[in-house]
Amino acid sequence: MAYRIDQSVSNICSPIEVLLEGRHLQFENGTEMANTEFDKYYLISKITAKADHIVIELEENKRVNDISWIGEEAVSLF
């Protein structure tokens, strides 16, 4: 299954460096990052600015399947 990062990153016009599980990924802008598919569901954990680019740290979402929706109310299963 392929996942995409939060699409709000597409508003970033600067180059982006992504820190992901010990790897460094480079993107020309937020649109390129938003269109990239990842093999896991990642959340943005930290955003910082360097001299000429944005640094985004991603972390895997560990809570993907621990909420069940009953009616309109979220109920945690754990």
Describe the structure.
- By secondary structure, this protein is mainly β.
- Helix content is 6%, strand content 47%.
- The protein is built from 1 helix and 8 strands.
- The protein has one helix spanning 30-34; strands spanning 3-4, 16-20, 23-27, 37-38, 42-49, 54-60, 67-70, 73-76.
- The strands form 3 sheets. A 4-stranded mixed sheet has the order 3-2-6-5. Strands 1-4 form a two-stranded antiparallel ribbon.
- A hairpin with a 2-residue loop joins β2 and β3.
- The model has no long low-confidence stretch (mean pLDDT 86).
Protein traits:
single chain; 78 residues; mainly beta; 1 helix; 47% strand; globular
β-strand percent reads: over 45%
Within the largest sheet, what's the order of strands? 3-2-6-5
Mean pLDDT: 86
The end-to-end span amounts to: 24 Å
Oligomer: single chain
Q: Got a strand count?
A: 8
Low-confidence stretches: none
Helical run tally? 1
Shape: globular
**Topology as a string of helices (H) and strands (E):** EEEHEEEEE
**In percent, how helical is the residue content?**
under 10%
Structural class: mainly beta
Largest sheet composition: 4 strands, mixed
